[in-house]
Amino acid sequence: MKRLAKYCSFLFGTVMILSACEKQEISTYNDDPGIYFTTSTYAYSFTEDIGANSKTIYLPVALSGNAKDVDRHFTIEVVNDTNTNVTSEMYEIQQGDLLKNSFNGRVGIVLKRNQQVDQSLVKLKVKLSESSDFKPMLTQTVQITWTGKIIQPVNWNWLKYYFGTPFSTNWYAFMLKEAGVTSFPYSGTLSKTDPVTWWWSAAQVNAYALKVKEALIKYNLEHPGNELRYEDGPNAGQLVTMPI
Amino acid sequence: MKKNIVYILIAMSFFAMSCIKDMTNMDVKPVAQIVIDTTGMGLTTSYTTFQGDSLKIKIKVNKTGTSNDNLKYEWGINTYGGYKRIVGVGRNLETKITEAPGSFVLIYTVTDTTTNQKAFFTWNLAVNSAYGSGLIVVDTRDDINSDYNLIMGFNFTPGMGDSESKIFRNLYSGANSKKIEGIVKDVSYERYTTSRFLTSITDKSIIRVDPLSYQFTMRDNQCFLLPPEKISPNKIQSTQQTNPHEYIVNDGKVHYRYTSTAPFGYRFLGDNLDYSCKEICGLQLPTSSTAAAVLYDEKNNRFLLTPTITSSSGTLTSFPAVDNSGVAPAFDPRNMGNKTCLHLEEGQNKRVLAIMKSRDAAQYFVYQVLLAPLNGKMGYSLHDITNNPEINNSKYYTCSQSENVLFYATDNKVYATTLLAGGGTDASLRYTVESGEKITGMRMHIMQGNINLPSLVNPLDFTQRQTMPAANRMLILSTYNEATKNGKIITIPLQTLGVGGLVTDPLYIKTYSGFGRITAFCNQNQ
């Protein structure tokens, strides 16, 4: 009986040891794609298109994972908290697209205009929805604001290099008036996913900035002691200066 | 006990076996190499071809143990930015080069279809335009319209022999089925990598073409990012030796463009006094930290500095206040008196020569102004040339960067005046055009090309001539004979530096004729 137990133990041990010799398969990368917004805020003012009743904006997303040879889609949904103060009639959310072989995609939202929009700043917060194609990651929400008033445009992070960092509504109004435009559609980042809206080159915005600077110099010469100052914003009361 | 030891040893051997690295996925099977044999076939590491020419390459390929029937071939022309064109799928190559002029890499790929094994061979491929480097000559035959011509030859085109020359005529009208409206008064060529621009100005228009084809590309307002209030150009100048960029004076203001950006930017802003200019001179090799160009402000009788080459958005700046400590500067660039500027050009050691004339008197001066260092001593020298021979009849001015000499030309004579230390000058007649001809333009050549000069040992023996680069050693004149309606380009090597000593032996002077009245010319550096 003892011997049988010994043989059984030996056989069991041998089987266990041999099982350690199982052939190893080389592990491969498993794609687990995710997407994220490349901006956390987006602001639009209907001052850019006075006669318009709606505007389609495009929120940019980026892919984490491999590009694929097929178009893929994603959806976003509204976050109904204090950061959303408009009813669903005031916007239309479209399907998000990430086109084949691309690492960048976008989702369109139609922003609508009414009296409330013209007189105040309305807010809408959206977030990425999980789908079979993508998992939301990193920046998953965007705070959208729109109005009929002058507000800091979403591309100020680029305009500030030409017009100065502090934003002020009177300064922005001066810039628009002297440049003779309703917006400065230049953004080195947003142009990647929405080149139609953000169609200016750096050379163009530089040219307009010089034109505005020329007007600012003239204004200050014509208003000695009353040079142009920021009326609101972080540098309210200070003289307007330009970096170029 | 013995049995137990045996069992333990067997068990240990199994344990040891389990430690052997699993190599079953890593079998290495030696495969015969594909051999692209370039030896003994006269193959080079690079090819240079003209656009539209054929390129033929014969090559040997073999692979031991495999029939060549299993090999697949691909010839691709590639360049930076993802461009790729398959130009052949046979073992040998025979293709027509349609690529735009530029630098490419020709990649030959051989694939064994049975194993997907690949072998590569690459060559650098330079594609030149059929219209290569040369001298663009703009002429008119009716005093109403203008046209482009191109001279390619020893004086202007690298690689062309002493006796070789080609003249392409009527290039604009040939490419666009009409001539340029108006008389072109200045022309400028600028190239940044593969972006090329040839821009002409008349009194009231700006016309740009693609110098690879001479097809019209844009005009007037299209040439600006923000259209100016008025199209009234006076001067255009490119700098090509580093960071290629271009200036245009339009309606008294200077606009700037650079790299591959085609339109000019917004005008340079002046200071509180504003400015109005006709002439500007950009240095060919400006430093990155000092002014790239200087202009003369006719409104306030002063010189102004542009921003550095890396700043297209800064404002023009005044020169610093004069510093009279130690050796006082020759003049104050901020206050030039009642003078107008006839010409600005880069001279020796990055000094800019300004040929000035009193507005209310027949007085002529040469001022040499420094663009760096920025201090109160930038008014380098002043030379009164009022008493120079025929200076009152002078129409054209130029200088070399290799000597401190001003050339000025009347209708039929070229004088050189050495700008002596201390402010004096020493003028000499250097060239007289043939009877019946009138000089219509004059420039110092500053780009590619070659000249011949007499041997220093035996100057009378032409066979012992020396060949050297033409840049800053060759004066280019344009002349016109009203009776014969013949316009000429005459190139005269500068034999003796320091005194503007133009060569006098006609064997060394080249003439290119058959043009209308030449109104402008410039280098084309393709």
TrEMBL record, chain A:
<keyword id="KW-0732">Signal</keyword>
<protein>
    <recommendedName>
        <fullName>DUF4843 domain-containing protein</fullName>
    </recommendedName>
</protein>
<feature type="signal peptide">
    <location>
        <begin position="1"/>
        <end position="20"/>
    </location>
</feature>
<dbReference type="InterPro" id="IPR032299">
    <property type="entry name" value="DUF4843"/>
</dbReference>
<dbReference type="Pfam" id="PF16132">
    <property type="entry name" value="DUF4843"/>
</dbReference>
From TrEMBL, chain B:
<protein>
    <submittedName>
        <fullName>PKD-like family protein</fullName>
    </submittedName>
</protein>
<dbReference type="Pfam" id="PF16407">
    <property type="entry name" value="PKD_2"/>
</dbReference>
<feature type="signal peptide">
    <location>
        <begin position="1"/>
        <end position="18"/>
    </location>
</feature>
<dbReference type="InterPro" id="IPR032183">
    <property type="entry name" value="PKD-like"/>
</dbReference>
<keyword id="KW-0732">Signal</keyword>
